[in-house]
Amino acid sequence: MARKGKNRKEIKRKLLHKYRLVILNESTFEEKISFKLSRLNVFVTGSLFIIALIAFTTLLIAFTPLREYIPGYSSTRLKRQATELTYKTDSLVTALNYTNRYLDNIRLVLRGEIENNEMNRDSLFEQYKIDPATVDLTPIREDSLLRAQVALEDKYNLFERNIFGSSQLLFAPVSGTISQQYEPERKHYAVDVVAARDTPVKAVANGTVIFSEWTADTGYVIILEHEDGLLSVYKHNGSLHKQQGDVVRVGEVIATVGNTGELTTGDHLHFELWSHGSPVNPLNYIDFK
What we know:
Layout: H1 2-16, E1 18-24, E2 31-38, H2 39-63, H3 76-111, H4 141-155, E3 177-180, E4 191-194, E5 200-202, E6 207-215, E7 219-225, E8 230-240, E9 247-248, E10 253-257, E11 268-275, E12 278-280
Antiparallel strand pairs: 1-2, 3-4, 4-11, 5-10, 6-7, 6-9, 7-8, 8-10, 8-11, 11-12
């Protein structure tokens, strides 16, 4: 027991024993700096220095960009940016695919072609249809009077009809004689309206110019995009007054009648209407007289 107490006193004495650290001038042995130290002071000072160094290194890694240079370190911010860029890239790819399909439809319009689609959309709703044989389709007197009234109103209100389930108003692009009717079986998805050269060609509805260029077959061509998936196409123009990206109002002059392009035999306007990628007969909605 006495031996253990003696050992403790010896260790305590060694830890607290004072030493002097002296810095001398080697040539003159002049004392420059001296420190009074003990082993305990050296141990405590060294430990505090190591802890401070570890803390400083941790803060440096956690709050400065230097952490990005540590091999294997994964930044939360970089992960978030990579995820956001992945979503944006996916959205851009989707938008690009839609744009390419849209441009393909525009090319079909310009070439006067359309893919033969044998699928009938109405067949999807076949199960909801009612057999006409089981329904009395004889019009009643009130229905006949209403039909006659609506037909009379439409006769004198040709440019203010709700055509495609929207608030658009279709205006006659030119007035003239129809030289060729709408004949989809012959791939003529338009009406040809004969008019004098340089007659103003007007927009049938409010819209945006999505194409305004020269083509070899159809000369000067301008295409307008309207609401509800409606496109109006004007070909063989003598000149174009609008450029791609211009916003036009209904009745605004966009071109003049001409005889440009290889597929033409005289001054006229080749006019097409497309609804949601499918051609429609312009004569059902516009009076060219």
